[in-house]
Amino acid sequence: MNTSEILKKVRKIEIYTKRIVDTVLGGEYRSSFKGKGIEFHDVREYITGDDIKTIDWNVTARMGSPYVKRYIDERELNIILLIDISGSTIFGSFERKREKIAEISALFAFSAIRNNDRVGLLPFTDRVEKYIPPEKGRKHALLIIREILFFKPEDVKTDPIPAMEYLLFILKRRGIIFFISDFLGENFEIERIKKTFSILSRKHDLIPVIVRDRFEEEFNMRGLIDIKDPETGEEIAIPSNEIMSFLRKRNDEELFKLFKKNDCDWIYLRTDGDYIKEIEKFFLRRAKRMAI
């Protein structure tokens, strides 16, 4: 694509996703993500009923009457889009996963910008391909969308561990990390990633976003696979698509167990599905949790 075509594509995504943010997701986002801490704001005179633990004794001594500290929620958040841009994201029977990931990321980015939060990007393959620190503003959000769509990685393999370790090193303040990937491949095996994943989820609000193509879920493989019973020695011919479906289901069950164990909310999306509806439902679930 030339520069004009790139800008046209990015602008199209901006118009589409911004409309959704303004009409559907804006309020849900704000209710779903709140600052995890509080920060000092100012002091005021003590009023009957105030918690005596909030009294500022230094100011009280200077003024000759009791004053209490006031705190406010830490509202501005750092949002990081941790995005898999390996070779598998170019695949798509309905639409390329990379393009769908860009739209999903735009929803998160514009929701954050609308609420005056900062957004950053870390695209990865089997290495950290690039890091764009969190910033505010529309231009910054558009830069992130362009990078997701058109960035050319150095490799096509995938390995999430270097990227997760990099965020553990670089992020000094607690943030919200949308971890967007298909979560497929041998380097996503649970025993391999669980330690780093768990550490990252303890330090930050880690939200896995699984993006899959329907062909990655619905196997239409021809042929049979011979399975031998280790006890009886009997051989049974089983359709290969049933074997693949079983293995994928078992792997996903272990993946979801990892998410639950680390108290992670997650989103499961398909490129041929209504991802806007699924993200809205996710925001509503999060809002209920935050209200408890």
Automatic annotation (TrEMBL):
Domain DUF58: 42-241
Cited CDD domains: vWFA
Pfam families xrefs: DUF58
Residues that span the membrane, as ranges: none
Protein name: DUF58 domain-containing protein
